[in-house]
Amino acid sequence: MKNIKKRRLLVFLIVFVMATTVVFAAPVISDTIKVNFQGKDVDFGEMNIYNDDGRIYVPYRQFFESIGYDVEWDDTTKTAFAFDPLRISDSVDREQKVDAALWQLSAEARACFWQSFNLATLRFDQALEEYEDADNLAVIADVDDTLVDGVMFTADVLQDGEWSGAAFGESLASDACLPLPGAVEFMNYVVDNGGTVFYVTNRDPSLREVTYSRMEEMGFPMVDEDHVFIREEGMASSKESRRQGIVEQGYEVVMLLGDNLEDFSDLFPVTEGVTARRDAVDDMKDQWGDKFIVFPNAVYGDWEKAIYKYDKTKTLEERMADKKAIFDEYKYNQ
Ligand SMILES: [Mg+2]
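Above: query sequence and magnesium ion SMILES. Below: predicted holo structure tokens.
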């Protein structure tokens, strides 16, 4: 794990106010003005607030320390830093994922995984009874956050890291990369009972070798080029063609496992937004817990991209506005 650097918010707004210790000619108005930051009154103590021809000057250190920030002065670069010690990430959108990542690490999440793989085992038993020839039965599973836990990488990124293929590869090769509860047991159960498992993942070709080596080490069966389908160079993110290729080999796909709706079908349109995807899920309500076994992933996925309709050109501010609009839709006390 990388060292966690202090995340500093350089607030240009009031940098020049470091000079407020210099005596101002402007009148002191500390008794007549209040400053409120995000709902919290700022207490400047004995420090003065100045009004210089309509422009209000407040003491930088007292401002931030009063609201719980830590303040540092770098005399070499003549820079004032203020940072919120309660923040784990260095950006708003990452900070919003912190609780989601913690939930993925929770006992409740583990219970969801055991529950889903227990159900998958039951469904596979039913398939064995239904079909005479187990050799034709296939299960298709996504890899990341379905079979293999990606939260250790997420936690690293949220604190100090970067989303990149190289960094992801490093995390996969580390000891922190572990199977999710019930995953190894279930995939082996299928194979031990005559079925075939396929791994359809959007990992890119640079991760092929680490995928094979780590999944074999974890104990997953059938980890080879005939059963692991990564997203090859130039291939679309859709997994439909890879799923179709398995069907064309003559397999009866009795179950699909995934943490993202894309792992099951192309019928869940990310670009058409949240409501369209929810409707599509409802249209297939009988499949969930039957042919489709879905796992929770509150950290990332098409559920989030659907909020801004997969428009990659949107700024952070625009995406935040789209998220807020989802909540606005659910306000019952307008
Ligand atoms: Mg996944």
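Residues 255 and 291 are 4 Å apart (CA to CA).
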